[in-house]
## 1
Amino acid sequence: MLYELLISRFTQFQAAAIGMIVAYVITFISLNMRFSFLPQDQGRAFAVNGALSKGKLRGVGIVFVIDFILASILFLPLSFELIIYLGLLFLIMLSGYLDDASDKPWNEYKKGLIDFVISVATMATFLAHNDSTIQFLAFELKLPYPVYFILGVILIWVAINVTNCSDGVDGLCGSLVIVTVMSFAIMFSEPLGSMATAGQLFSAVLLAYLYFNCSPSSMLMGDAGSRALGFFIALIAMKSGHPFAYLMLSLVLIIDGGLGLLKISLIRFLKLHVMTNLRTPIHDHMRKNLEWSDTQVVIRFVILQIVISILFAAL
């Protein structure tokens, strides 16, 4: 395997750097090919500046996720556990792509059920290969397996959906995910092991995507990308042994995408009309109500998440 050849000749850091460069180049080239199977965005009637997306390539997450999977096979030590995770990542990406390519958007409950099934399969795999010991700040806790299973399913489902909802401004979702993933990779490099390198590879892939997605963008990741990114964040959070760190290291994603989910759920299931003066996702509130530009939203949100991550590292 290429990984074994590299690690025999280079340090772990050098091998990871080579992998990142290759992942970036492959993704940049493949995105430039603008495959004919990629759908075109029809614009979003209720989103701020949604009409500006009309005609752009959508669902390019299928391209960069496959590129990440190929880079992982080349530059990571393969294990049965990792192969299953890569397969599940492909499936969550594929479900998003099929929704992107569909003439009629998929029903929310259909997507929610798919997310739930993949979350359950992921937790079953995770607990078959890892124990249920977690770190919470300075405390070490061993959770009962059923408790960790339920909490893990919730974490994965939430991460998929809040990340998906945050994808509405050129460059925003990809930039925030890079900050979150690299925060985990830097802070928890030892417990993550090769998964920290996986985070670096995914970040390199996203950097290539952001070259085309910065404002004004020429292509959009779609559900194929955002749902896969949320899944990966949840996975790396659990593999770090610090799953509750997700709450801080993804706080901007959670607030941006999560408040909309909460608002809709309260209205739909409990008939509670709350946050009526708050436009969701929050990035739309900032653009419409506070008149922030797209660039201001991206830069300010990223700065906030970096500051939060630094504060968390100091705890």
Note: The beta strands are 133-136, 139-142.
## 2
Amino acid sequence: MTIIIIVVLLALIFDFINGFHDTANAIATSVSTKALTPRTAIMYAAVLNFVGAIIFEGVAKNVGGSIADPFQIENGLQIVIAALISAIAWNLITWYFGIPSSSSHTLIGSLAGAVFAGAGLDAINWSGFNKIIIILILSPVIAFVVGYIVLNIIRWLIYLLGNRSPSKVNRSFRLMQIVSAGAQAFSHGANDAQKAMGIIVFALIAGDFQTELHVPFWVKAAAATAMGLGTAFGGMKIIKTVSKKIIKIEPMNGFASDLTSTLVLQTATHYGMPLSTTHVITSAIIGTGSAVRFRSINWGTVGQMIMTWVITIPISMVLAFVIYKLMMMLF
């Protein structure tokens, strides 16, 4: 019982950090274009994160059962503790430096590394793991392409409606961003909060506290609350990176980015697939920015972000592996 309490607390800490780490990406465009003030955007996103997190559970089941079988794995609780400590550490490191890395990547990588350390390579469900990795890799590409298309469709529609002054166009899209930012925050909660739920369910099954791959309501409520509270604390460092260092975001491409990431995230959530909200939102911004002016993208910042995305999973795997071994040596 003591160990499962530790697992739940660590999972909620992870979700809390995810709230101010990843939600910063969800509201960065609306803050950048001044559609919403930072404080209003953060509180708005906190509420919608909570609502999104409490409604769905398909992603949680996928995370809880696809990487390893919680019904058969040995040392399951210790494995989950090592994975969560690793994921929390990487999230804090990247948050400190204002790097929009992926909480999804670090959690998936950490769980795989901890399973390897505690139960061996054969304990990893490689088909499930590879499926998740493929989706995580393809989703930024899809978000980039969809963002590029969506922005061009919007520009075409504006052209059909006739010449409108830039100030009127910006004012209209700022108002539309209030809705799109909310939809994006809801989508973030619906997908990202479920990852911590999945880890808790994994631990409950491994510790013989639960006999089926189901997310209890108390797990949903606890994870949703932790993410909502984390969101309320904000994440201005990452907001500045996403909203200012990639491209100067105007209301039109801000709205297009929000719409794109919402469509991609909701589609993935519907099919129970865990995505990186960070990667989807950032790629949508790059896609819409490229549609406006390809050269306006700060490709140096984009390159640094992509490098962080690439190294997150292997670093998290190694970190979780080492943490598990140290835990078993010390305790």
Note: DSSP finds twelve helices and no strands in the chain.
